[in-house]
Amino acid sequence: xxxxxxxxxxxxxxxxxxxxxxxxxxxxxxxxxxxxxxxxxxxxxxxxxxxxxxxxxxxxxxxxxxxxxxxxx
Length: 73
Fold this sequence. Notes:
Blueprint: E1 6-10, H1 12-24, E2 28-30, E3 42-46, E4 52-57, H2 60-71
Parallel strand pairs: 1-4
Antiparallel strand pairs: 2-3, 3-4
């Protein structure tokens, strides 16, 4: 599996409406892994050419901090 993708940060309050818009245009939404709520929320999808994109709440810094805490337990 290839994990190369472009992800955009979005506000938490906008996340559900973004997912709804993706579902409404019948885009290929990829199944994600189960997440801890501290890891924020993400949705990934492919465009018609197979390029992977995503939307994620929180920042890269938040995500890296989360992974540091779970790796030290």
